[in-house]
């Protein structure tokens, strides 16, 4: 009878409340939040970003070149981005590249320093007010920074080269791409079960690289047809304005009013110990707002204030696993940021690649990463139970013949979820090792074809980012997802200050005699990340 009564209630309620928001959210697909909303969005965002990847470095290289020679009185004509010759020997030399590397470092600093102050609060804001608000703020910053670049590019002699820095400051103050990316991961986390999260995160990142695979090539052709480096930025501006309206009017919010209220109560409890009655406490409050989200990685930070609907999904990992994952992610992100600008400068100097050839290279690199994330990684996840079964049989044989058991960190005869998560940790370790060895091979490459071949192998390293983020989201309560991803954004922002200071300056020193040594320094970060990942595991 109880079952019959419940069934009757379910049948009657839609008839009584056909306009109920909850009813419509369940029935109307375009009002239902889903991670699949993000896949086409990320393709569009990454195509737009890819349009300017190679063009951006060439733009700044050419601008710095003009500044360098005009300061010495060697340029007699007015500067223009038209009639480009991206193989110009006057600009493509070690002296100009060294100055360009330092200017790119300044751009990164102007974006990263303001971002440190806003990325943590933006992550917390997304927990309290919804993911859409953070997405809108970050997209607005991208629009304004693109407008600044177009303004300076068209009136360079009026504004000067250093006015480019204003756009970087604006983008940093609104979070930029890092804020958009982490808010998107938080959105996907809200809509996805913990067992499917690693695949969905991989798809999102795969969608991003799908766009990156064609964006640079399209950008190269646009520049070639229009004969103007700024043309791709007009396209970027229009697409970002369209994206803003997509977030505003079409994308459904992933957090319900109940979720937002729960998150707000939890955050008030976390912040209740901070007072702002004096300037000292105000400073402490400011410091906490910036770096407070990083405390989520510390042991025992997530063991408090849990209820039945807000528990940590994984409780059998050691209390230091989250901190070890954060260190591993930090070293991995540092290696990625270190090579972002350097590889474009390096290939144009060592292999004499043009803008279009660099676009082809990025296409090959991105297509390989898309294959890994959309095909290879899901296959690995799908068949991991069979792989674990084989490893378990192998472990039994070892235990029987050699007389010992495989200790923790290996596949053991425990519950299936535990074994699957240990398997994912070992995938992270192995892929980090392959990535580190690939960067050593970059330094040994003597031709462009060898460099491309190494890139195809190193594409396996892209697995680590979604795998680490998926594991991290399973080590915190659901109400802290935005705070977690905000903390990851803070790490990225801090790295955007430290990494360019170290590696751009290091490359400017090495570029004249030993440019290939830069790859060995980057590989050291990945080896350290591989070692750090051994701190992640079950109790």
TrEMBL record:
Its main location: membrane. It comes from the Eukaryota. GO terms for molecular function: transmembrane transporter activity. The chain crosses the membrane at residues 35-61, 103-122, 134-152, 159-180, 200-223, 230-251, 279-299, 320-346, 358-380, 426-444, 450-469, 481-503, 518-537. Keywords: Membrane, Transmembrane, Transmembrane helix. It is found in: Membrane. GO terms for cellular component: membrane. InterPro entries: MFS, MFS_dom, MFS_trans_sf. It is a multi-pass membrane protein. Pfam families: MFS_1. Residues 42-539 form the Major facilitator superfamily (MFS) profile domain. This is Major facilitator superfamily (MFS) profile domain-containing protein. It comes from Rhizophagus irregularis (strain DAOM 197198w). The lineage of its organism: Eukaryota, Fungi, Fungi incertae sedis, Mucoromycota, Glomeromycotina.
